[in-house]
Amino acid sequence: MPTTAVTGSASGIGAAVCAQLEKAGHTIIGIDRKTDDNFTSIAADLSTAEGRQNAIDLVYQQSNGVLDGLVCCAGLGVTAPNCGLIVEVNYFGVTSLVTGLYDALRQGEQASVVVIGSVAANQQVAAPHPMALAMLDSDEALATKLANEDQQAHIAYAASKFAVTSWSRQTAVKWGGNGIRVNVVAPGAVETPLHQASKDDARYGEAVRNFVAPIGRNSEAEEIASVVTFLQSNQASFIHGSVLFVDGGMDAMMRANSF
Ligand code: NAI
After folding, report:
1. Model confidence at 127: pLDDT above 90
2. Looking at residues 194-211, what average pLDDT do you find?
3. Virtual CA dihedral for 224, 227, 229, 230, nearest 10 degrees?
4. Ligand 1 atom closest to Cα of 119?
C-alpha cells in the first residue's frame, strides 16, 4: 500500500486528492494549517521555515522514513492577506517540502511528486519578473520583500506559479535517475473556496468571473484530483518533468503556438 503525503489536504483540490488516492489504496498523510479527522494529518504552517521543518519531521515520523508519493496542493490565491505570503506558501512552502522529503521519497516504491501549479504561470508578467528570479535563486527574503512592495497579488501569484513550475521541471531532470518522478498539474479555474474568494473580491472579481475556459465552465476539484491520481499510479510511469494543463482549454486559448 503506497504512502502519500498531501499538502493543502483540508480543502478544495487537496481534499479531493486525498479522497481519490485513499480510494485507490494509498495511506494518506495530510498536511494543512489544521489537522483533519478523516485520515492521519499534520498541522503545520508552510509559510514559515519552522512550520515547514515541523511538517517534514512529522512526515518522516509518520511514514517511518518511506514515502511513495507527495502531492503539493497547499497554496494561496490573490485574496491572501499579503503578497509576501503568496510567495512564502506557493513557492518556498513547496520547494522546501519536496527537497526536505527527498530521502523518504528515495526509499519509496516508484515514488512520484506532483506539484499543483496554475495556468497563471504562463502569464507574460511572470517569467522575467525579479520576484520569480529571486524565488529561483532561493532568496526568500528578497522575493517576499519585492512581493510586499509591489502589492500586486496577481503578479505575485503568477510569479510564484511560474517559479514553482520551473523549479519542478529542473528537479525532475536532477531526480529522474534516482527513480523519483516529478510533474506539475496546472489547473485553470476550479470551484474551490480559493476560487470563490477570488470571484467575490472587489479588486479581481470581475476579471476572474469573466475569464471562462473554451470548454464553457469551471472544473470541479475532483476533475483535477483524477489527473493527480493517474500521475501517482504506475500507469503514468514514463510521465516525468511534464506540465499537464487541466484547464478546459485556457492555455490553448492564450498561447496556441507554445507547447
Ligand atoms: P483551497 O483554499 O480550497 O485549499 C488550499 C489549502 O491550502 C487550504 O486547506 C489551506 O488551509 C492550505 N494552506 C494555505 N496556506 C497554508 C499554509 N501556510 N500552511 C499550510 N496549509 C496552507 O484552494 P484550492 O483551490 O484547492 O487550491 C489548491 C492549489 O491549487 C493551490 O496551490 C492553488 O494555487 C492551485 N490552483 C487553484 C485554482 C483554482 O481555481 N481553485 C486554479 C489554479 C491553481
Report:
1. no
2. 97
3. 180
4. 43
| Ranges of each domain in the chain | 3-254
- The yes-or-no verdict on residue 61 having pLDDT over 90 is yes
The grid cell for 101 is: 522529503
Report the percentage of the chain scoring pLDDT > 90. 95
Of 177, 196, 232, whose CA–CA distance to 17 is shortest?
A: 232
Q: Which DSSP state fits 26?
A: P
**How does 108-138 read in b/e, with b if 16+ C-beta sit within 10 Å?**
beebbbbbbbbbbbbbeebbebebbbbbbee
Residue 26 · residue 4 · CB < 8 Å: yes
Q: Which CATH class is domain 3-254?
A: alpha beta
- 32 CA distance to ligand 1 centroid (A)? 10
If you measure from the C-alpha of residue 140 to the centroid of ligand 1, how many angstroms do you get, rounded to a whole number?
20
Does 89 score more than 90 pLDDT?
A: yes
Could you tell me the three cell numbers for 164?
514553482
* pLDDT exceeds cutoff 90 at 79: yes
User: Stretch 67-94: mean pLDDT, rounded?
Assistant: 98
